[in-house]
Predict the 3D structure of the following.
Amino acid sequence: MSLDAAEVVKIAHLARLAIEEKGIPDYAGSLSSILDLVEQMGAVDTAGVEPMAHPFELSQRLRPDEVTETNQRDHFMKNAPRVEDGLFLVPQVIE
């Protein structure tokens, strides 16, 4: 798939990216190559292939859920402009 300059400008606008005019041909080439690769991958027959989250049969190593740091709430509260009963007071943002 080949993208033209107008399509690259539109994609950049949708992605809220500022691109320079002189770089548009390079972007068009790169994006076209990516889309060609996606098209090739879409042509592969994946019937009977089970979806997986990871290519290896691994289980996640979990560590014990233990407290490793001391409570420093009072220390951090000293820097806050407004606190009450151990809570930070912030301006109301939702009516």
Residues 3 and 29 are 8 Å apart (CA to CA). The radius of gyration is 26 Å. Residues 5-42 form one domain. Helices lie at 5-14, 24-42, 73-77.
